[in-house]
Amino acid sequence: MIALLLALGSSLAYGCANFLGGLGARKAHVLRTVMIAAPASLAVELLLWPFLGASFSTGALCWGAASGVASAAAFALLYRTLAIGPMNVLSPVTALVSAALPVGVGLLQGERLAAGLVGLPLALVAVVLVSAGHGAGSARPSRTALLLAFGAGAAIALQLIFLHQAPSDSGVAPLIVGRAVSSAVTLAAAGLMHRKLGSVRPAYAMSAAAGVLDSLANLLFLLAARSGDLTVVAVITALYPAGTVLLARGVLSERIHRGQLVGLGTAAAAVGLLALT
């Protein structure tokens, strides 16, 4: 139950972070947004260090660094994906890939689906419904946007898998190492591409808020994965498009379609079933 609640909190934080990051990437080059978001996220994790502790073992360093590389790719790909198309149309691919890959890893590591035999598939259906845009009023994403969305989902999945592999007694060390690496990768990429970044300044507050929320989401996921099965935690976390879709409706007036409303109800039912099991 604790893992379920933590995963839900992670999902909500990811959804809000993605909305703010995607919105910020519409105002300036995506790397300018990530240059603010990643260091802001690192600052939060450093502030958490004295309270949650950190053990910088070899495992924590290696898996944290791997998650950092995946995180840098996830930041850039996801924000770019959400910037070039309707947020409630491009989310399905990222959500499904980010859920499916960790579930596969969990099953390979011996986790069982028996306890969540109904709730888990229902949650996957909810991921599709809650993040899919339909109808005449929806814009069709381009092939480039779909490829970016697939890449973003894969990067998110790898980041979560690598964080899950870190030693359970390492505290926030994997998060600190990962964010330090992702910040360094982002700044290096920005330095190499500085002529292509344009002169438009990023939305500083919005980008920093996205980074802070992303850091909170990573922390909640890490705690959830340490207290529950990766197969369940990853799928619940992948419901993050719900937060993005609701914010897009309230702020950008993007439509919430009937299928998405059904998806929200399905998500609630799936979470209830998983809580009971």
Order of helices and strands: HHHHHHHHHHH
Report, as a whole number of angstroms, the end-to-end distance. 9 Å
How much beta, percentage-wise? under 5%
The whole-angstrom Rg is: 18 Å
Judging from the principal axes of the Cα atoms, what is the shape?
A: globular
Helix content: over 70%
Mean pLDDT: 79
Number of helices: 11
What structural class is derived from the secondary structure elements? mainly alpha
Runs in which pLDDT lies below 50 for 5 or more consecutive residues are 134-138
Number of strands: 0
What does this structure look like?
The protein is mainly α. Helix content is 78%, strand content 0%. The longest helix has 27 residues, at 58-84. It has 11 helices and no strands.
